[in-house]
Amino acid sequence: TERKGSNPGGRCIVKAPETEPFEGYIKYCPHSKLHGGSSSDSYYSFKACHQPVYEAMTLKLAGMLGLQVPEFYVVQNSPTLKFTYDPSISHPLHETMPLYFVSRLIDPVPPPLDSGNEAQVAALKHDKIYRDILMVSDISNKAQNYRYNPETDRMIYLDLGCSFVNAVE
């Protein structure tokens, strides 16, 4: 699909050897208004095109702290990586990015709740200390990035972004 958030990407179907195909969301960061190094910098430099690694680190740490996050992957570009598109897609991915972030879609995703839902507010408040430890700032006012799961009385964080900087706007 077309992009849904601030980074390019969209819903996709991931097909990989020795893995059942699954629905996911793929995204990447092609550039930043902030200085992030030139293309001649080391592969390990802190720069926008490495955002998939930073986001994966954030989700890994969030999971270690007990927050519920989707299964995710960092996909490294290679000659064997192939993209195919639905004909309705008018803006395909930049296929030359070194890295892509893919998260498995949670099925079914609980419906969004009113921001005043008491159980959701309590669950968000409970998790705030963990989000603060990780410096995750892209949650509080972005209901599309989380869902409340009434069956577990917990939040599911669909998108935590990159916690290394406050990159909103």
Please give the count of helices: 2
- Helix fraction by DSSP (H/I, runs of at least 4): 10-25%
What is the total tally of β strands?
6
Low-confidence stretches: none
Give the strand order of the largest sheet, numbering strands 1, 2, ... along the chain. Answer: 1-2-4-3
Q: How would the global form be characterised? A: globular
Query: What is the typical, i.e. mean, pLDDT?
Result: 84
Radius of gyration: 17 Å
Structural class: alpha+beta
Kindly, what is the distance between the CA atoms of the first and last residues, rounded to a whole number of angstroms? 23 Å
Give the SSE order as H and E letters: EEHEEHEE
- Main sheet properties: 4 strands, antiparallel
Percent of residues in beta strands: 15-25%
Main traits of this protein?
single chain; 169 residues; alpha+beta; two-stranded antiparallel sheet; 2 helices; 18% helix
Brief sketch in words of this structure:
Helices cover 18% and strands 18% of the residues. With 169 residues, the chain is α+β, with helices and mostly antiparallel strands.
Provide structural commentary.
This protein has helices at 51-64, 118-133; strands spanning 9-14, 22-27, 72-76, 99-104, 146-149, 154-157. Strand 1 and strand 2 form a beta hairpin. The model has no long low-confidence stretch (mean pLDDT 84). The strands form two sheets. The protein has a four-stranded antiparallel beta sheet with strand order 1-2-4-3, covered by helices on one side. 18% of the residues lie in helices and 18% in strands. With 169 residues, it is an alpha+beta fold.
